[in-house]
Amino acid sequence: MQDKTEKSFVDGLEETIIAILLGLMTLITFANVVLRFTAGTWFGDYMNNTWGINGGLIWGLEATSVLFAWLVLFGMSYCIKITAHLGVDSITNLFQAAMRRKLVLLATLISIIYAALLLKAGWDYYANFANLPGTTGKWFPTGFEEMRPTSYRSWYEVDRIPMFDWLRFIEPMINEGEAYNKLPRFIPYVILPFGAALLLYRLVQVFAGLFKGSRKTLIVSHEAEDEMNEAAEKVEQET
User: How many domains does the chain have?
Assistant: First the structure.
């Protein structure tokens, strides 16, 4: 009972984060459209005089792009978890069940290697903006690079998104006390290693499930489509 409760909590948390990201993207885009079309009206003058917003949120496009990147990188692992990724299984379906299982395991193993490479690349890119050491090794990490003062890049900011006041506690921790005018890049870029790590974790889970037999496929298969067609036929016959 406890496992089901914990599973429901994790599922709800992931779905809530995805819903929040989608909601924020929609809200920002909608607000920008309204502000642009009301520029020069009494509402536009009110927003300009009260909030200093003239004709739209200048940071709206960049914020939406960041949220979309978060949605994609976070959602790709969630779709693996719920078997929602599309794929082509026409070739694997030509083989018997035992051989098909081996091919699915091989495809999952290749995906795990790809996720590991993606994690290394994501970490090395993110480390440049977070005062953290990158990894050594060409393909897979063999250690961490030696950090030099000239390697610090935490002062890099985004182009337009303003710095939030409730985040200014990080300035003495990572930017030597200097104030940020715009949001530091290491905050939105953290999704790169986090999303890759979550993808790797989900793929390892899938591989374990396939190996144990508790899961049959990595992608949405035609079996689910056939079951839906059979269910639709039954409904038609009953009606």
Answer: 1
